[in-house]
Amino acid sequence: MVLLLLCALPLTMHAQELPAPEPEIRPAPADGCEGEVPADPKGIDSLRAGLHRGVCSTARYVDRMFGRDNQFSEYQDASNGRAGVTLGWDEHDNFEVDTRLRASVSLPQINERFSATIGRASQDEFLADESGAFNSVVGAFTDDEPAEWFAGVGYGAHRGRDSRFDLGAGLKLESPLNPYGNARYRHYIYRPSGVLLTLRTTFFVENDEGFGVTQAFDVDKVLGDAYLFRLSSSARLSEDTDGVRWRIRPALYQAFDYRRAMRYEAFVRGETDGTQPDLYGVALTHRRSVLREWLFLEFGAELFWADGPTPSDRCDSCVGAAIGFEIVFGEAYDRLLRRDASRLPVVEKPADADRM
Question: Per the domain annotation, does 311 fall within a domain?
Answer without folding.
Answer: yes
